[in-house]
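Priority: medium. Attachment 1 of 2:
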């Protein structure tokens, strides 16, 4: 399974920015608890919140094959399951932040680390601004996938979690392929092989 890249590129420096609250709502208008909307950028929010949450989830429940054989790794105690739930809640609520009005793609002067395959922030901003409805729909796929993974986590169902995490990966990669690295031919080919629609 292809692991989605959850950011434009690594942000070299930067502390967490000040936040304000915004109510999260899904595509149907169902409202959940307020979420913290960073007074920063999509890139920083991805680096500071989405990346760590996603990496935690993918490390917490996974199938491993090594010299010891095949096994399914999962949280070993209730506290670890609760921590996983908290990370999935971050991912579930992330679309409300990613689609917040006025939130820019990246800080001024930020450059793509690999411009041969990654779009520059200005191009990404233009693509998002010109396709707001599509961007919102792709972001909502993250909410749906994370919600399903959260249900599996609450049920303490690691096998179900594996399946739901694949959906989470697809949701993220679908958006990234369209807006963040549409020129990455290797990623596009991998997506086609995995049936990730661009």
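Attachment 2 of 2:
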């Amino acid at each position: 399974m292809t692991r989605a890249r959850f950011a434009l590129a690594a942000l070299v420096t930067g502390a967490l920015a000040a936040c304000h609250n915004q109510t999260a709502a899904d595509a149907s208008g169902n409202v959940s608890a307020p979420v913290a909307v960073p007074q920063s950028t999509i890139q920083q929010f991805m680096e500071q919140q989405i990346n760590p949450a996603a990496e935690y989830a993918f490390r917490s429940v996974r199938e491993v094959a090594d010299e010891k054989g095949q096994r399914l790794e999962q949280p070993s105690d209730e506290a670890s399951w609760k921590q996983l739930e908290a990370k999935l809640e971050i991912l579930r609520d992330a679309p409300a932040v990613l689609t917040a009005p006025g939130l820019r793609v990246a800080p001024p002067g930020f450059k793509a680390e690999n411009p041969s395959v990654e779009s520059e922030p200005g191009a990404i901003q233009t693509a998002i601004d010109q396709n707001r409805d599509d961007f919102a729909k792709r972001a909502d796929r993250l909410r749906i996938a994370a919600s399903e993974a959260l249900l599996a986590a609450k049920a303490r169902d690691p096998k179900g979690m594996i399946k739901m995490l694949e959906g989470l990966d697809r949701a993220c990669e679908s958006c990234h392929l369209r807006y963040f690295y549409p020129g990455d031919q290797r990623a596009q080919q991998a997506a086609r092989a995995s049936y990730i629609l661009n």
